[in-house]
Amino acid sequence: MKRAILFVVLWAVAANAQINPDSLKSDIKFLASDRLQGRLTGSPQAADAAEWIAGKFKAYGLIPAVPEYFQKYDFNSKAVLGKNNSLAFFVKGKQFAARLHSDYVPYVFSDSGKVKSPLVFAGYGISAKDSSYDDYAGIDVKGKAVLIMRGSPEEDSTNARLYRFSPTRMKLMAARDKGAAVVLVANGKEDKSLAKFEYDYSSRAGVPVVNISYAFAKRVLIASGFDLEKALAKIEKTQEPNSSLIKRVEVSISVDISILGTKAINVAGMVAPPIISDSTFYVIGAHYDHLGWGPYGSMAPDTIAIHHGADDNASGVAGLLELARYYGSHPQLVKKPILFVSFSGEEEGLLGSQYFVEHPPVDKSKVAAMLNMDMVGRLRNDKLIIGGIGSALQWEGLVKTLDVELGKDSLKLSLDMAGFGPSDHASFYVKSIPVLFFFTDVHSDYHKPSDTYDKVNYVGEERVVTFVKSIIDSLQEARWVPTYAKVVAAEKPSGGPRVYLGTIPDFGSQANGYKLSGVTPGSPAEKAGLKGGDVITKIGDKGIKNIYDLTYVLQELKPGEKVVVEYIRDGKKTKTDVVVGRK
C-alpha cells in the first residue's frame, strides 16, 4: 500500500496544478458582497448565488449532474401569525383582553390551537426532583392553562442550583408532561420585552405557548384576588414552590401560526471521462449558504446586519470553483467522475446535503468518497484541520504522505478521526461513505457581520486547495478505492456526569418527535438497535417532541443508567432499553 501511495503522490506532483489566489479572492468577494446579503437559504439572494455558481460550472465545462445544475427541495423558511390569534382572561365574569405584541405574543415554536380552561399558577415552572424543588408538587394542571414565570427564583447565576432548569423549552416540557393544555410564560418584573417572533427552524412545542408581559399578568391576577408580586417574593425568600389554582379565572386562547415554505437549491455539476458506467464517483462539496441578516445562528445576536460569510463558507465555495475550473480544463486527468456540489441549508442543519444523499443523481453505492471544504480561508501558523481521517483505512497514510511531499510548503496537519462533524460531510458519512473535512478553524469573526472578504488569507487558502487537489489527483490514479471504516466513539472514563445517546438528528424533519438521520458507531443508540429514520417519542416517562426535549431529558440521566426509549419505525411503535454513555 505504501508503494502505491508513493506512486500516485509522484504522479500528482508531476501534474501541473495551479490554484489561482486571485480567482479565489474574486469569487469570495462576490459571494460575501452586500449584494448577496448573507445568502440566507431560501432567500432571493441565495437563489442569485446558486445561479452564479451554476454559471461558473457551465463556463468551466462541467456537465449538469442534475437538471440545469439545480437540485431543488422544499424548505420551511418563515413563520407568520394568522388572523385567529387572541388571548383573554375572564375574572369573576369580567373580560381582560390581551393585546397582541403589547401584552402577549405566541412563541414561534408554539402549536396552533384553541383552548378554554381554568388557570393554575405554577411559580417558575421548574420540576427538579434531584434538587428537591418541584413547582408542580401538590397541584393538578391536567387540561388547564399553566402560568409560569421566566427565569429562576434564584439569582441569575450559572452556579445557582436551579439555573439549568430555567430555559423556557425545558419548562415547557415539564408542563406538557404534567398534562397542561396551554402554557403562559410571564416576563419578570424588570423584563419589558416580549419574545421576538422570528422563525428559528425549531420543531413544534406540543401545546400552545405564549409569552405575556408582567404588567398584564399582574393586573389580571390582582383582579382575581391573587397578588403575583407577593407570591413571587415568597418563593424567592423561602426558595420553595408557591403554586396554586387561581380561583374564578378562566383563560380563552387561540394561537394561529403558519409555517411557510420555499424552494432551496443545491448546485451540482460533473466532470467525467467518456465512459462512466462502471466507475466510482467522488464528491467534492462546499455549502454556499450563510446567515443572511441574522439573528438566527449569529454570534452577534443583537446586531441586525449582513452576515457576509466570507470564510463561512464563501471560502469553501471559491475552493470548489477553482477545483472545478482546473478539472474542467484538464478533463484528460479525470478517470473517475467528479461531482462538484455546492449545498444550501447547511446552517439550518445540513438540509441540502441530507437531501442530496437521499436523492443522489448517481448510484449512491458507487460514491467512493466525499471531500468537504468548510471555512478554509483563515490558515494560521500553517495549521490545517482534517476531519474524517478514520472513515477510510487509507486516509491517514495518504494525507501524511502527500504533506511530506510538499517539503517546505508542508502544512501542520491536525487529524481528527471522527467521520461526523458540524458540516455537510456528516450527511455522507451516515450513509457509510468515506469522508474528509478540511477546516482552518474558527476565529473571532465566526458567524458575525465582520466575517468579510478582506480578512481571508488568500495565499493560505491557495495552499489548502492545492493540497485538496493533490488528494483528488491521487484518488484519480489510485487502483484502490477508499475502504469505509466506522469510527467508534470512545467513552470518557471520567470528566463529569454528562451523558449521550449517540443519535444524529434529522434537522429537516417535521415529525412529531425526534427523528434520527443516523447513529454514531459504537454508541449507546447503536447498541440498542436504533437507526436512521427512527422517530423517538419518549424516554423514560418523558415525552419527546423535538431535539430540545431530548437534550433536557439527557441532563437528568446519569452515565450507565438504563432507560426505556420508545420510538416509531416504519409506522410501528416499539421500544428498546438504552444504557446511556458518558460524553
How many helices does DSSP assign? 13
Strand content: 25-35%
The major sheet is characterized as: 9 strands, mixed
| pLDDT averaged residue by residue | 91
| Uncertain spans | 1-17, 492-496
CATH homologous superfamily designation of the largest domain: Zn peptidases
- Please estimate the helix content: 25-40%
CATH topology heading of the largest domain? Aminopeptidase
Question: Could you explain how this protein is built, in words?
Answer:
The chain is α+β, with helices and mostly antiparallel strands and 583 residues long. The protein has 3 domains: 2-79 and 265-477, Aminopeptidase, CATH 3.40.630.10; 83-255, 3-Layer(bba) Sandwich (Glucose Oxidase, domain 1); 499-582, Pdz3 Domain. Helix content is 26%, strand content 26%. The chain has 13 helices and 27 strands. It has helices at 2-14, 21-31, 44-59, 168-177, 214-224, 228-238, 310-329, 351-358, 395-405, 425-429, 458-477, 524-527, 547-555, and strands at residues 63-64, 70-81, 86-91, 94-97, 104-106, 113-121, 127-128, 133-134, 145-149, 182-186, 209-212, 244-255, 257-271, 281-287, 338-343, 367-373, 383-387, 412-415, 435-439, 499-500, 503-505, 514-519, 535-539, 542-543, 562-569, 572-579, 581-582. The strands form 5 sheets. Strands 1, 2, 13, 14, 15, 16, 17, 18 and 19 form a 9-stranded mixed sheet that branches. Strand 21 and strand 22 form a beta hairpin. The radius of gyration is 27 Å and the shape is elongated. The two termini are 36 Å apart. The relative contact order is 0.14. Residues 1-17 and 492-496 have low confidence and may be disordered.
